[in-house]
Design goal:
The protein is an alpha/beta fold and 317 residues long. It folds into 2 domains: 29-140 and 261-284, 3-Layer(aba) Sandwich (Rossmann fold); 144-258 and 294-315, 3-Layer(aba) Sandwich (Rossmann fold), CATH 3.40.50.2300. It contains 13 helices and 12 strands. It has helices spanning 2-27, 40-57, 72-84, 95-104, 118-122, 144-154, 170-185, 201-211, 221-225, 227-237, 246-252, 261-278, 299-305, and strands at 29-35, 61-67, 89-93, 110-115, 135-139, 160-166, 189-195, 214-217, 241-243, 255-258, 294-297, 314-315. The longest helix is centred in the N-terminal third of the chain and has 26 residues, at 2-27.
Length: 317
């Protein structure tokens, strides 16, 4: 009789465990986040992503959040760890984080945000607007021709424009090439200045300021994380900077054509919900962009440099 009772109890425990396991698989989601570096733009994108998922899924979503402190190799370690932990989806915030996630898994869905150009990041030659793989997401690219036109609007008498960026960031190279061509078509002479890492930023910025009338710095994570260093060189030199995005502009720019990073993070979160809940294939989803752009300016830096801003611009709050 005792043996029968023991078998019966064991069966009850197995059924109970199976029920719990089924509930977890069907209703709860573990989402890994790999963010390249802590700065305001990427922080806002991550928050938007988490808010969208939390609003849709409530306490059924668990976030495993990591920051790589600006080190691409750490992104690789983080993403491999997330794969080993069996997450249901990985969010890669910034290009090195996305690339690390892509290298870590071809099966777990990956949603990127704050990516300038997915074709460049993932080395896709026949770009159609979709990756065709386990990856999708949102881009932070503002119209580059309009950013070049902003330089013409604000600094029509400038002769030399320096483009300053980190050579280790493929998306910065992509932006620089496009903006350079646009500026040449507008009649400017363009000089390129690159730094390999944070150690070179001050010296390269000084060289750029000495050579150019105005600088353009694209959406660049290394530059954004070194905003104070750049400003400490450019402001005393009297060299104005057009920035690739608003949060960098707060640190060192006079103006930019801005997107909202919280918005693109939120949209990425909505895409993640579509994948997790409805089973949508990431490779079939179009890469999405910011819903709107705004001309903004840094009133404090403009005043110090004596830059007059025309109508149609909004002061950064």
């Amino acid at each position: 009789m005792k043996k029968i009772i023991s078998v019966f109890m064991a069966l009850i425990m197995l059924i109970s465990l199976a029920a719990c396991s089924g509930e977890t698989a069907e209703g709860n989601y573990k989402v890994g986040i790999c963010q390249l570096v802590q700065h305001e733009a990427l922080d806002a994108a991550t928050q938007g992503f988490k808010d969208a998922l939390t609003e849709a899924l409530g306490d059924k979503v668990e976030f495993i959040e990591h920051n790589a402190s600006g080190d691409a190799a750490t992104c690789i370690t983080i993403c491999n760890q997330l794969v080993s932990e069996g997450v249901d989806l990985i969010m890669g915030n910034a290009t090195p984080a996305l690339q690390a996630a892509a290298a870590a898994t071809a099966t777990i869905p990956v949603v990127g945000t704050s990516i300038t150009d997915y074709a460049t990041a993932l080395e896709i030659s026949d770009w159609t607007g979709k990756t065709g793989s386990n990856i999708t997401g949102t881009a932070d690219l503002a119209p580059l021709d309009q950013q070049a036109a902003m330089i013409k609007e604000l600094f029509p008498n400038a002769k030399i424009v320096g483009i300053l960026y980190c050579s280790a960031e493929p998306n910065s190279v992509y932006q620089a090439n496009i903006v350079e061509a646009e500026l040449v078509s507008l009649g400017y002479e363009v000089e390129i200045f690159t730094f390999a890492d944070t150690n070179d930023v001050a010296n390269v910025t000084a060289a750029a300021c000495a050579a150019a009338d105005v600088l353009y710095i694209p959406t660049d994570n290394t530059a954004a994380s070194c905003a104070e260093t750049i400003n400490n060189v450019a402001l005393p030199a009297g060299t104005p900077i057009i920035a690739g995005e608003e949060n960098a502009c707060k640190g060192f720019g006079v103006a930019t054509l801005s997107i909202n990073y919280y918005d693109i993070g939120y949209i990425a979160g909505q895409m993640a919900v579509e994948i997790l809940v409805n089973g949508t294939n990431p490779g079939d989803m179009d890469i999405k962009f910011a819903p709107e752009t705004t001309k903004v300016y840094n009133a404090e830096i403009c005043e110090k440099l004596g830059v007059s801003i025309p109508e149609g611009y909004v002061a950064i709050g």
